Amino acid sequence: MVKTYSQLYMDARRALIPTEGADMASQMARTLLCHVSGKTHEQILAGRDLYASEAIGAAMDDGVNRLLKGEPIAYILGEWEFYGLPLDISRDVLIPRPDTEVLVEQALEYLKPLGECRVLDLCAGSGCVGLAVLKNVGDGITGVFADLSEPALEVTRRNIVHNGLSHRSLTYPVDALAEPSPVLGKFHLIVCNPPYIPTAEIMTLDVEVQKEPHMALDGGDDGLDFYRAVSRNFSAALNKGGALAFEVGLGQFEDVTAIMEEAGYKNVQVRCDLAGIERVV
Question: Which of 108-117, 208-217, 244-253 has the highest mean pLDDT?
Answer without folding.
Answer: 244-253
